[in-house]
Amino acid sequence: MTAWVRVCAESELLPGESRVAWDGDTPILVVNLDGALYALEDKCTHEDFELSAGPIDGDQVECTLHGARFDLRTGEALCAPAYSAVPKFPVKREDGAVWTRDDR
Q1: How far apart are CA 20 and CA 40, in angstroms?
Q2: For residue 66, what is the domain's CATH number?
Q3: Which key words are in the record (predicted)?
C-alpha cells in the first residue's frame, strides 16, 4: 500500500477550491465540493492534459483542450471526446491536513 501524500492544510482547501498534489509521477486533483473532498488523476483520458487547468462547474470539471467533462465524484466521462473514466483516488482529512494517494 502506498503512503498518503499531504495535499495542503484543511484551511487552504475551502468549498469550491482545488489543489494538485503529486504521488510519485501521478498528479492528483483534489476538489472541495461543498465540504466533501474528491480526488481524481489530473489527466484527461482523451488527451494527456491537466484537468486542473479547466473550469469546475458544480460537480464537473472540463478539460480545456477539447471540452471533455468528468464527474468529480466518480471520475466518469460525461461527454465526448472522452469515453473512459479518470482514475479516482481516496482522500481524507487528518491532523488538520488533506491527504490523498495513488492506490492503484
Answers
A1: 10
A2: 2.102.10.10
A3: 2Fe-2S, Iron, Iron-sulfur, Metal-binding
